[in-house]
Structure formats: C-alpha cells, structure tokens
Specification:
This protein is mainly alpha-helical. It has a single domain, classed as Up-down Bundle (Rhopdopsin 7-helix transmembrane proteins), CATH 1.20.1070. The protein is 76% helix and 6% strand. The chain has six helices and two strands, in the order H-H-H-H-E-E-H-H. It has a two-stranded antiparallel sheet. Strand 1 and strand 2 form a beta hairpin. The longest helix is centred in the last third of the chain and has 40 residues. The protein starts with a helix and ends in a 12-residue tail after the last helix.
C-alpha cells in the first residue's frame, strides 16, 4: 500500500514534468514567432517554468529512491509494519523532499532574466530567457544536478543489494540443501530488473547532464552573448 502511495506522487510529478516541458516548448515557439508579446507573462514564466521543471525532475528521482527503500523495509519487517505510522512517515518524507529539492534549485530563478535581441537584417525582435551564473553558483549548480541524479541511484543500488541478501537468507531456511551463493544468484536473476531500472534512468539523464556541463554562450547578430 505504501509503495502504491509513493507511486501515486511519482506519477503526479512525471505528469507535471511532461506538461511543463510541453508548455515550455510551446511558449518558446510562440515567442520566437512574435505571437506571444506579453512581457509580464514572459518574465514570470522565465523565472518559474524552468525552476518547476527542475524540481519535478529531481522529485521524480528521489521518489523512485523512496520506493526502493520502502520495498526493502517491507521485505525486512514483513507484517510488523505499522501502516498508519508508515503512511504519516511517507507524507512527512515527501514534504521534506519537496522542500529540500525546491530549495536546492533556488539560485536558478534568481539568476534568470529576459533579454530582447534585435536582428538588423530582418528587423525581427526575439525575446530570450537566459541564466547567467556567477562562477561559484555555476559550480554549485553542477554539484546539485549530480547530487540529484547520483544520490537516488546509490540509494536504489544499496536497497537492491540489501534486498538480495535478505531474500537469500530467507530462502536459505526454506532450501537448506542450497548454498548461500546459489541462493544469491537465484535472487539476482529474479530481481535483476530492480538493478537495471536505476541504471537505465541514469543513462537517460546523461544527455541532460551533458547539456548542463557543455552549455555555453551563443553570440547574437549584434555581437552580444546570449
């Protein structure tokens, strides 16, 4: 039940991520077509949209880690789990995760601003939402993004290792004729999808990390850097 509860919040963050990403693409397209001209709206979305998108991505990673922890605790504790107390603990944990994740990304909206680029060749004015970090904040930004990716991955990995050992010990009671090593191999074959999943998630986040680390200024037609 608790895993389902956490999965419910994870599905919400995933849905919000898709909506925010689509909205960001839609706003960018309209602004470059000079259809969206409301400066206040563009300023507000510049300071909030990317921030909310990063928070949702970070929350989704940590909620997956929470699912791994809860799954392992259920195997270890079994029927000893106090459901009501556990539900309250999950709610508190999710609120703490949300606050910590959102706080860690606070520098992003602070250092974002809107600029207008005028093209002398076709007289088209383009509006851009850019972020310009100080050197120290840029390093902090790198560390935070790595932390929100590697942290949940390590938690998933450690949880699976503990789960393998606990299940192997439980099976050793039912199958005393088998060695502990054989039982570990059997459990690994049964639960290998729990290891493959986090690895795939990390691989899928590599393009985002690459963009963050390799992003650089783009020179506009009038010589300014965006």
């Amino acid at each position: 039940m608790l895993v389902v509860y956490i999965c419910y919040f994870s599905s919400i963050t995933t849905l919000l991520t898709i909506i925010l990403f689509g909205l960001k693409h839609f706003i960018l397209l309209l602004s470059q077509m000079n259809v969206l001209l409301n400066e206040i709206f563009f300023l507000v979305q510049c300071h909030t949209l990317d921030f909310l998108l990063q928070v949702c991505l970070g929350m989704d990673q940590w909620l997956n880690a929470c699912i791994a922890i809860e799954r392992t605790l259920m195997i270890i504790q079994g029927t000893k789990v106090n459901r009501n107390r556990s539900v309250k603990a999950v709610k508190v944990a999710i609120m703490i995760l949300l606050i910590v994740t959102a706080t860690s990304y606070v520098p992003d909206p602070i250092y974002r601003h809107v600029i207008k680029e005028e093209n002398d060749f076709d007289d088209i004015k383009r509006t851009w939402c850019i972020v310009n970090y100080l050197a120290s904040i840029r390093i902090y930004n790198y560390v935070i993004h790595i932390f929100h990716i590697i942290g949940p991955f390590l938690i998933n990995l450690i949880s699976v290792i503990i789960l393998l050992k606990v299940k192997a010990q439980q099976q050793s009671i039912l199958h005393p004729n088998k060695t502990y090593k054989q039982l570990l191999i059997e459990q690994f074959q049964e639960l290998k999808h729990l290891i493959i999943g986090p690895i795939v998630l990390v691989i899928l986040t590599l393009p985002r990390l690459t963009i963050i680390f390799l992003s650089k200024c783009m020179q506009s037609s009038d010589g300014d850097f965006l």
